[in-house]
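Table S2 (continued). Query chain:
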Amino acid sequence: MTSGLPRRFLDLLTRPRVAGAAWWSVVSRLPVYLMSLALVLTVREQGGSYAQAGLVAALYTLGMALGSPLIARRLDRDGRSMVLTATALTYPAALAVLVWATHPGGWAQPAAAVVAGVALPPANACMRALWARLPLRDDERETAYLWEALLTEVLVIGAPLMLAALMLAGSAGLAVTVIAAVGGLGTLGLAFTRLPTGTEDTPTAPDGPRHPLGPLRDPALLALTVIMAVSAVPIGLLTLAIPAFVDQHGTAGATGVVYACWGIGSALGALWLGRSQSEVAPQVRLPRLLLVYAAGTALTLLAGSEVSLALALAVGSAPIALVSATEMSLVSGIAEGPSMAEAFTWASLATVLGDAVGQQAGGLLMDPFGPRTVFAVATGTALAAASVALVCRGLLTRRAAPKVKSAV
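Corresponding output:
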């Protein structure tokens, strides 16, 4: 396709001094979507137990959760070159130590996992903040955030396939090392690529210590992160319910195919429905999309086989990427320039937290009530997210983006 939304993506992503940052950011984000799984496989390959593998993956995630707001704060304060360079070098080094210089059961391996999590390059926050600062028209910025949401879906599906391909050629440890090195290379590219004139690459930040909550002191951003966390809970619930349902109604080997239908439906929904999204203000668009998201989640209640569940997920997931794009658009409009990267980081952490809560709740509900009850809880939670977004619509009114000349 060369018209409509694909053409808008192509025009944006091939633009001089925009294309470099956009494509380097794709490379730098490859580790984000597969490293936890890769670490589990590596520890098991080294002879560790599932408990030891789970501990390493959990500590990696904990380090990421604790370190990412601090790293993003330095990104806002010091600019991308220094922070991205430091993380691009530290992150692969920490993972190389974990793989080649530690072993399961010792203290060094968990310590290296924490360091790697803290040092994860802030490519997501950096690129999303850059989209907010680049001299773009409002409709071009909306296209950029739709691209970000679509890219997430593609990486969630594609990155594990890349891990599997690397493991066919070698060990899990070698795959971790290669992926970390490639991600570091992409981060260095993002750090030093040239940007259009007028981009606020290093906004002026206030001197002195920053408040621990940073941009979350803004009630609008706090409300938005709550909405994002609640709307991510159904994802975590479905993550547990889907394999349980397939086990009951089909074969365990079909679980991956059913999951793929979920991601593909979201990506196709972004391409099909995303063309007219910029015509509606994001604070109006968000509760509408969340209502459609709740209705789509409810389709799982009608499933009676693995085939019908796959179909329900493919159709019902259509608004998921659009919800994510709208949330990013709201973050860019609400957050202040000097704290843009940190604001995007808190928003990302909100979705991670919501997903984790959903997975935990799904695990607790599964044995006594079964997957269909978990589907119902997911639907109710999505409706709750839509209700909160509707109540907070006035608070989420998007501040006008700076008027710039789109001369890039």
